[in-house]
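Re: the 595-residue chain
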Amino acid sequence: MQQNVTKQLLSDRPAVRWTALVLLAMAMFFGYMFMDVLSPLQTALQDTKGWDPNAYGHFAGSETFLKVFIFFLIFAGIILDKMGVRFTAILSGTVMLVGAGINYFALTEAFETSSLSTFFANNFNLPEAWWNVTPFYEGMPGSAKLSAIGFMIFGCGVEMAGITVSRGIVKWFAGKEMALAMGIEMALARVGVAAVFVMSPIMAKMGDGINVSRSVGFTVILLCIGLISFIAYAFMDKKLEKQIGNTEEKDDPFKISDLKYIFRSKVFWIVALLCVLYYSAIFPFQKYAANMLQCNLGISDESAALIFIVFPLGAAAITPFLGRYLDKKGKGATMLIFGALLMIICHLTFALGLPAMRGGELDKVAENSIVTGVIVDSQVNSEGEKVAINVVFSPKNFANQHVKDAIVGKTKGDAVVFNPRTAFCDPAITDEAERNEVASQKITNFLKDKDSSFDLNQARAVDRDFTFTVDKIQAPMGVFGIVVAFLAIVLLGISFSLVPASLWPSVPKLVDGKLLGSAYAVIFWIQNIGLYAVPMIIGGVLASTNVDVFNPLSYNYTAPMLIFASFGVFALIFGLVLKTLDRKHHYGLEEPNTK
């Protein structure tokens, strides 16, 4: 009997339980990497796959489609409750891998040359009407349609994995370092976002040309490793369960009847709306952040990714400290308000501040100036009309001094004729084949540099004269503007730490304990409605406000960023109302969690 009492469980051994956490967190780390693998590649997707902002927005929103419209969040909870952590972990890892594999295939050349490409091009062409809640619309590229299907399947898997990992942490760390373990798991997920923003553009540009499927394929391999880590965890979990017996904690199953008590609560609706408004201004923003920074700062996608990664890394670093402060000092409602204020400031900086700081207009084109204008194709299209392309470029990137001299000194309204390939040809190279090869490499480097750029296919392949008409001449973005963008991203990371750290621990103070599971499920469901709709709304607004702009490096992001800022304004209002109700009804939002 004495031996049974003193028997040490696997979870009592620090090395073993932290190994279990590593296995669980590793799968989520790779899942979050895949979630945003295409976020820094929006420009490349338009250049190589024909995804305009509308197509990209519909793809980005597809991840939450099944979770919103077939209530998958609720089904995932039921599966976890009935089947346990081991089964659900392996199932979620498999579903993530299947969805990711479909997404990868859609972006490969094999899909482009297959009959599936024709099938998707000719089907799922639904009108963009109010009743069309699917990610599909008429004119959407076939690769984007199949990618959206894969992404929505992946989304079901990653959501199931998220709740499973949380349950697994409770199982191994109950009565021990559970809060720290959950904080570390969340921080690693943020690091995964940062890692993919750096890795994805680099992987896409390895080898010949730009190939977005390389980045996606790499993260699919990582998801295979994640599935293996889930399987390894299952063996550890089974040994632990043999020791403790089948005593895995069971949450009350979700009951539809519980909804009437939740929906009658005014404070519940305030919290739910706060959640959807805040997260709708954060996660969809991640999908567009890299391209927005490119357009506003005139920098490469790699440089934009390096600036943006301070957002998830900063959030990962700060969240544990804010959580500890909340436990010891409280001030949850105040944190929500302060976080909303920071979010408003940051998005207004992106909407109005950065465009205003882009170099002032110049009278004449200088070698390092940013030139905006229209290139008119010397040939006509099938309707007999000349093709006009809005472009942005900098003469400093040209290798041919004659072409550079022809553009430098021009004023607004002036026209110049030049050949895009000739612009990159070095006349000092006498051998024509070598000259063309060097020119191709310079074009490739130019497109990678992307201080500014014109259309990929035009620059790489076209070998004929174009007439370029100067429309706008600007000085390049100065160091001050880049520093402001960096600081805005840092502040947004602090905001992203403030709100989740204060929002989720506040829910148990506002909702009856027996309804807590149902309340979380409904909040997550409402949150995913926003995460589904907002990327498509932003994509549509971006397309409608840049009707004649075909260069993804010259988009005007003012309207989308103002929409994100407006979410912050409404979140601020609801935060003030919540604090007022707390003062009146004493929910304890401003009190510390630790008694």
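Residues 1-5, 247-251, 446-460 have pLDDT under 50 and may be disordered.
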